[in-house]
Amino acid sequence: MSKFKKKKEGGIPAVNTAALPDIVFMLLFFFMVATVMRQNTLKIENNLPFADQVEKLDKKDLVMYIYAGKPSENYKQYGTQARIQLNDDFANVSDIASFIAAERASKREELVPFLTTALKVDGETNMGIVGDIKQELRKVNALKINYTTKKGSVINQ
Amino acid sequence: MSKRAAPEVNAGSMADIAFLLLIFFLVTTTIEVDSGLNRKLPPIEETEPPIIKQKNIFTVLLNGNDQLLVEDEIMEVKDLREAAIAFLDNGGDGSCDYCKGKKDPESSDNPAKAIISLKNERETSYKQYIAVQNELVAAYNVLRNKRAEALYGKTFTEMEANANDVNWPGNKERLKDQIEKIKLDYPQKLSEVQ
């Protein structure tokens, strides 16, 4: 008679979960590869409008982003009128010229003519502020622009 | 004493660590939008603009209530594309042998002379403005696609996609010339009034 007798127990054996880490790792690698870290923290609402005749912006390092829209929930003290955001902070129309100059200075000289300005403007914004931005861009001769939009139909949005 | 096997490392918590990382990346991932409508702003010039015949200008007005006025008539956004195509492809002076329009002498002379003028007010919503821009660009794309189909058996969109594709096997130089030719046949003349 042995002292330690295994209790014989019936019932279902435990499910083997050894392959679980593999699956999780697979997902992990996917998201690690697909992740683009946000360049700017948005302080505005940025719900882009739809368009279907879109072209891709291919050279990401040659794009300057200008955001515009209503201040978001956390920044209500800045009012409900649409504001411009450059880099990480609110800006005025007059700051655009210096922003463009700084962006140009940070790029190699031969690449400067290929710089594109991407306007990421909230759909509910009035055209007044967009017109001001465009006028300012014309003054500093940054003529290539891109209205960033989501892909979709314009008619039934 | 006999050789003892090294004890196995417990890997049970590996899954937990992997989950932790996974959730971190799940939360931080934002699929960035990187497409849109490319436009070119006009440079600031001191010179007087050239005088253009009224019939060669297609006026699109967008007022503060997002209502559309095209050639002095109220219009819906969904009808704008057709109207713009009819105007651009009119070929009133007969010099454009590929135009399929009505050849109405009261409308534009040929696609090279036809200009679309877009005016908006400060109160116009950006959404509506993009919708109108999109429809006007679409009108040009439809005409260019038709022209490319007739000349080279491919749509203009395909040709541009091929030109941007590094793995495309065909003759790039010739393709670029063909694209230029079609752009010349239907030049994008979209002016915005300040």
TrEMBL record, chain A:
Compartments, record wording: Cell membrane
Keyword tags: Cell membrane, Membrane, Protein transport, Transmembrane, Transmembrane helix, Transport
GO cellular component, one term: plasma membrane
Membrane-spanning intervals of the chain: 12-37
An example molecular function term from Gene Ontology annotations: transmembrane transporter activity
Top-rank taxon, per record: Bacteria
Pfam families in UniProt: ExbD
GO biological process terms, semicolon-separated: protein transport
Topological type in the membrane: Single-pass membrane protein; Single-pass type II membrane protein
Protein's name in the database: Biopolymer transporter ExbD
Family membership: Belongs to the ExbD/TolR family.
TrEMBL record, chain B:
Transport listed as a keyword: yes
Swiss-Prot/TrEMBL keywords: Cell membrane, Membrane, Protein transport, Transmembrane, Transmembrane helix, Transport
Any one Gene Ontology BP term: protein transport
Pfam families the UniProt entry points to: ExbD (PF02472)
Gene Ontology cellular-component terms listed: plasma membrane
Main subcellular localisation: membrane
GO molecular function: transmembrane transporter activity
Matching InterPro entries: ExbD
UniProt subcellular location: Cell membrane
Membrane topology (UniProt): Single-pass membrane protein; Single-pass type II membrane protein
PANTHER family tied to this protein: BIOPOLYMER TRANSPORT PROTEIN EXBD-RELATED, EXBD MEMBRANE COMPONENT OF PMF-DRIVEN MACROMOLECULE IMPORT SYSTEM
Family indicated by similarity: Belongs to the ExbD/TolR family.
Protein name: Biopolymer transporter ExbD
Natural source organism: Neotamlana sedimentorum
